[in-house]
Amino acid sequence: xxxxxxxxxxxxxxxxxxxxxxxxxxxxxxxxxxxxxxxxxxxxxxxxxxxxxxxxxxxxxxxxxxxxxxxxxxxxxxxxxxxxxxxxxxxxxxxxxxxxxxxxxxxxxxxxxxxxxxxxxxxxxxxxxxxxxxxxxxxxxxxxxxxxxxxxxxxxxxxxxxxxxxxxxxxxxxxxxxxxxxxxxxxxxxxxxxxxxxxxxxxxxxxxxxxxxxxxxxxxxxxxxxxxxxxxxxxxxxxxxxxxxxxxxxxxxxxxxxxxxxxxxxxxxxxxxxxxxxxxxxxxxxxxxxxxxxxxxxxxxxxxxxxxxxxxxxxxxxxxxxxxxxxxxxxxxxxxxxxxxxxxxxxxxxxxxxxxxxxxxxxxxxxxxxxxxxxxxxxxxxxxxxxxxxxxxxxxxxxxxxxxxxx
Amino acid sequence: xxxxxxxxxxxxxxxxxxxxxxxxxxxxxxxxxxxxxxxxxxxxxxxxxxxxxxxxxxxxxxxxxxxxxxxxxxxxxxxxxxxxxxxxxxxxxxxxxxxxxxxxxxxxxxxxxxxxxxxxxxxxxxxxxxxxxxxxxxxxxxxxxxx
Lengths: 407, 147
Hints:
The complex is a heterodimer.
Chain A: E1 22-23, H1 34-47, H2 57-76, E2 85-88, H3 91-106, E3 112-116, H4 125-134, E4 137-141, H5 151-157, E5 162-168, H6 180-189, E6 193-197, H7 209-212, E7 216-220, E8 231-235, H8 237-242, E9 253-256, E10 261-263, H9 277-293, H10 295-315, E11 319-321, E12 332-337, H11 342-350, E13 354-355, E14 357-359, H12 364-370, E15 375-379, H13 386-402
Parallel strand pairs in A: 1-13, 3-4, 3-5, 5-6, 6-7
Antiparallel strand pairs in A: 2-8, 7-8, 9-10, 11-12, 12-15, 14-15
Chain B: H1 3-6, H2 9-16, E1 29-35, E2 40-49, E3 52-61, H3 64-77, H4 82-96, H5 103-106, H6 125-146
Antiparallel strand pairs in B: 1-2, 2-3
Helix pairs in contact in B: 2-3, 3-6, 4-6
């Protein structure tokens, strides 16, 4: 069945008649619509130069394209001050920027940092590093086996002495939305700074940094229909202003003498070296594309697919679906086929053109918490259809037979 | 390549075999091998006496390819001397890399020849070679001790 959204993604046109790509790994990286690919092409065809450097026409155009992308991102996340929008490579780099620039300088011995058990390694290991270096303690907010975090757990873990709370908005494994609003509110009650990993929520939920009242928020362009290699960190100005640079070098300075230097104003202070202007242009085009579809439609389409997939997967014999029927879910569903390693499941599904992720999903502590060492993950974006889910389920029925089981 | 070339009877049966899947008494050497991207995690234990692999077994979990490969490898190396086992490991890894292709040359790998086609599957190469790399590392320790 033709789908007007899927048709806008060139990757799905290949072998569409013989063996269509059933792409269920958008939580790892999304596909890109044609308008994004064309916008990136257009930048390199017509406007390419090093932004912030050349005083010639092309340099001015490149700077404009790059800075317009920043304005677009600011508006997309409802950030009132675009200079608080910093381009990075991805969420991992954004989190490391917070950890190394804020954490290493403002977390002290004996302080506590709190994260959740649902975190991706990118919002876990930087905090392990900070806590080890500074003699601080890393505490976890635990979810139940279904991924649900209780109010009591938030109140029990975020207490006096906690200086920073870093939490994901949506789990990259279970797809469950965390009570991020409550986590941020509680963090502020005890005087802690709150950082939000929005990598998995940004494609599915309209972000609003004002309404969330987070202190930092990070996401990746490539999960948001943009090119690889561009990400965003937004932070409150009063924090960003007092933080030292993360990386130093070109374009992040005010003036340089032989033995020292002074830093540029935001956002340049945090954007050392030549930036991925083509990526930023692609991200701006992706935001245009998302807004042309509209979050109302995105949420409606994805809700229907997610609920359909959840119900269908529960009917597949010999399948364990992780997570809870309760709670708000976006994007990802995790499961295992009895007696079959996820990597084998992924190989067998691939033979039918079904692309899923297998492994620990960069969330090893969560794997242990839900009682497995690895699992399969199907994840959805707005271009997916019920036919994709049907193809997944049909392929899953074959898995155990390939491994020599009778049913 | 087709799934029937990967999930052959030799591989699926060995992947479920528990014959060599247990800790051993008083191992002289052990080494843990991990594929972090996919979660294969095995601990290989060896009992080497007078340069001979007298006992070998493994614990851990992983995909069918890694489990079968480990089980078949242990069948092959039990009772061999350390140099011989190292030579076979090198030949197996050469086969998976596509560097050793001569069927006659590969014959001594016995059931482990079943993994030859994995060389065409980049996503699964690491699974097939995990136990053999782990063996090499364990045996290098063994050699250090012998010398």
